[in-house]
Amino acid sequence: MDQPEHLKSAGLKSTLPRLKVLDLFENSKERHLSAEDVYRQLLNIGEDVGLATVYRVLTQFEQAGLLVKHHFEGGKSVFELNKGDHHDHIVCLQCGHVEEFYDAAIETRQEKVAAGLGFAIRDHSLHIYADCTKKKCPHKR
Amino acid sequence: MDQPEHLKSAGLKSTLPRLKVLDLFENSKERHLSAEDVYRQLLNIGEDVGLATVYRVLTQFEQAGLLVKHHFEGGKSVFELNKGDHHDHIVCLQCGHVEEFYDAAIETRQEKVAAGLGFAIRDHSLHIYADCTKKKCPHKR
DNA sequence: GTTACGAATGATAATCGTTCTCATTTGCAT
DNA sequence: ATGCAAATGAGAACGATTATCATTCGTAAC
Description:
The structure is a homodimer.
Chain A lengths: L2 H7 L6 H12 L5 E2 H11 L5 H14 L2 E5 L5 E5 L6 E5 L5 E4 L2 H13 L2 E14 L9
The first copy, chain A, binds a DNA duplex (30 and 30 nucleotides) through α2 and α4.
């Protein structure tokens, strides 16, 4: 339970809402949570937190490098714990489940292409939207 | 000027707003336009069109396959003429200019990765956000 | 332990992009 | 020309997110 250190090193006071949000991400089944998800789950746990605070905390955590933010189709942003490893996402169109993957070949090709066009990559996002090919979608919720 | 045919074959009446929007995309310097962009430019031309209509028309054109929609960081969606060729995008962080590219190796790797995970790709988006490496950004506006 | 002060919170209003509603207008087949 | 469904425009409504601001909390100094 070294959460307070995480917060401290990020220059953030160790407050109740912040600890609860961090805890949620570290113990939740679903790695990818939207602000609304976090808000609802905290209310369910009995935590009396405001939606505005959730948004603020998520943004602070993202800037502190604790979380990473992604924007998939469908309006709302989702956050996930930053494990330090870059990866891309494949989204199941049936159930919305998000799977992660990393492909070195794709990464290096991107660098090559960008360099060839005279750009230095600062960030990138690759989102694949797909149907599960198994008989019954194993991600159905 | 075969726009009416485009519309007709899409089952859309050939109305003034629709023709103006199509015309804008075919003659605009910037390939990627948001709804707001289209709206403003039409007003500048003296066309008295409503924002709601612009949104409706853009959506219809997308469904008809005339336009393609993209969602970059920063909230708003942009549309571009559908030339039938898939391509990805690199966005200049300095000026917001969008450059297009296509890399066969990346495409095939994506298919492989998705297949390996048990998915059939329906759609995907690869957005690279980068700094221009030339002394002065040639895209500065 | 109190105290004090700035940072953090929560309720709510505001904003932004987008969609919906509905009365009016338009395209087009007759 | 005429009629009617389709399309339009103004503005309301919407969902996600951000800003405002009075109140509460964390913590460092006493």
